[in-house]
Structure formats: C-alpha cells, structure tokens
Amino acid sequence: MKTHTYNYYTRSQALAANYVWFDYLSYLHRLQTSSFASYHRHFRRGFHQPIYLTLPIVIQFIYHTVTMKITTVGITILNDQILSLTTCTQLYVYPIKALRGIKLKSARIGPQGIAHDRTFMLFQVSEPDGELKKMQVDSHPQCALFEQEFSGGNISVRYHDPENQDQDEQPLVIPLIVDTATLAKINVNLHGSAPSSAYSMGSPYEDWFTARFGSPIRLVYIGDGKRAVLGDTLPPKKHQQTTQNGKGGWLSSLTSYVTGRGQEGKPWITFTDVAPLLVTSESSLHDVSARLPADQPMPMYKFRPNIVVDGQGEEAWAEDLWAELTFNNKHKLLLTGNCVRCVSLNVDYETGKPAVGELGSVLKKLMKDRRVDTGSKWSPVFGRYAFPAVMQDSQGASFELRVGDEVEVTKRNAERTVWDWPGL
Q: Where is the MOSC domain (predicted)?
C-alpha cells in the first residue's frame, strides 16, 4: 500500500492539524464527497509544506468519514452538530394580546417580531383603587372568545357569545397605526417590564370591551413605547437588532413596525411576553396529542406561537436544544429561552372557560415529563423564544417569511437553556 508522508517542523503544528480538521470536513461536505482520494487531494491543496500525518489525525479521518452522513432529508452529522432541514407550516400574529391569533400566509419579520404583533393589550380596572391588571388567557379565559383579523389598515374584532351563538353583531374596528397625539398616556406594567410610554385608546373602543367583559376595561396601545428585555434572554450583542421610533405618532410607528429601519439603541419588545417571537414544532405537538383521546387532538393555536415548523426528521422536543434557525439559507433567528406553560393550555376557546374532560388536563399531563427547565422547575416547556439576528441584506432589519419556506436548524446547544426572567 502506498504511503503518503508529510513533514511537521514542530509538535505544535502537528497538534494544530486537529483543529483545522473540521474546517476540511466542512469543505468536503460542500463538495458532497467522502472518498479518501477526494479528501486527500483537497487536504494537500491546503498545505504547501510537507508534513507527517500523525496517528491521531488518521484515527479522526476514519471516524469522521464513517460517521458523516448526508441524507435525502438534509440531515448532516458534522462535529457533533445535527443540521436538519424542515419547513415553516404556520404563522400567527396577535395585534391585541390575549385575543385569538390571526393565521397568516406570510409575515414581515423585524427586530420586534412579526409586524403589529401585540401592539395592543387589554387591562382590567380594579375597583375601587383603579389598579390596572393585565388580561391574559390564563387569568381571563373569556379572551379566547374574541376573534381578530386584518381589514385594510385596521383590526376587526368580533365577539363570539357562547350563550347566543346566532348573534351577528357588528365588529369593532381599530386602526392598526394610531395617531397618539390626542390619546392620554397611561402607566402599565407587564412581567416587571414597563413600556417607556403607552396610551389609553378611550371611547368607543374601551366601552365595547367593557360591555362584553362586564367590568371596566382599558385598551392600551404601546405606540412609540418600548419594553426592556430582562434577564439573559437577549442574544449576544453582535447578533442583536434594534430599532428606535421617532418622537411619536403613526409615522414613526409605521417606520419601526413595517420596515424595521431606525437608529440603533437598546433592544426592546412590545407587549410580547419576553421576546419578539415564539417558535414551536409540530413534532412536539404530535407528542402532546398522543396523550389525549384520538378524537381530541391538541390544537397548535392554544400554544399561541408566531412561527410553527413541521419538525420533519426531528424527534419530539428536539427544539429544547435549538440555538439557531436559518430561513431560506439567509435569515437567522436566535433561540434564547424556553417557553414555560400555564393553565391557558386548558382553556376551551369555544366556551371561554376551562375545558372539561381530557382537554382540561393538558397542563397536568405535560407536568409529568416536560418540567425540563431548572429555572422554572414547576412549569412544563413547549416552544422556544427567539430574536432575529443581525441582517446583512439590503433590507436591513426585516425580511419576509412565508408558509412553506425552508427552515434549517443550524446551531444547537449542548444543554438546555435556563429560564431567568426575574419574577416570572
């Protein structure tokens, strides 16, 4: 057998070969070949000095050549990383937080997530002190009875009265972008992160919600307000995207939420809980449904995601370790935290009350084996919070995502992230 001799001048150079090894495997992968002859040809091309191919490198070559796999579904094992190809199957946006989501075919993704997501929020006025209490599905399951949809430049909201399903009332129409010049400022707080400013929409909007909830309600618009991201939820600074609105009004909001352009500043969020986006997987949803009667599958909308991927080629709960998703080989999301779950999973969206039977015990079923985040050890995990990474294209801070677009899991964590949003 013909041997090939190489000559290293120092021991450190020999050791360095171990570190360049994976770069050559990556190059080899791009060439879509794993033959020794092709590898050897490209390996030698990278060096101009004769060197000795040390025994550890020979062992590494055999091991990694055998274990590197390229399959038709795009799964590649390389340097202990699994890159899997999947598809975006659903997109949701929630202009008014806690109401039913709007299912989209495409969405503009910017630093604050999907355009117009959770820019409005409902608060209940406590009596007699007038304290504002946040309204979410877990504490106010009646929110599930309100359907919203886009209608031109407006949000159209309909109330589904479970006691009078034949009722055909006129929807409430709310402008997506509001001129805040005539609105009263209001102080609100969500999960310990208060927006720099927020505005009460006043009549007739708040009157409409008050009549249906049966208690005083404030509809709050975040406008040019910004909420700080707390804890270690933020991605590394080099990956952070930021935008900053102008001093007020609809023009500055339009610039921020539609085009994503603006001056750089500290990263911020709207009335989203802790991050701009929530990503979930259908593979994990199938596992949840397998815990329920066959005729009562768990619907994805109860998990209130923004982006759903099919998880093809992935086991259930593989997303626990996802660190980065790449869309259409170009746009990246950085997944920084787990979404821990509450009793909102048990709500019946037809009655606006806790569901009866098996669908009313989904949270309990997940508690058995999905309490996997040591930072929130009493709550089960489903889904991952995400931030758009810095964009390098001409569009700057936003990109278009469509149902059916290709999604690749391009980075994974060695272990699960730990929840650390203070007080939540």
A: 252-410
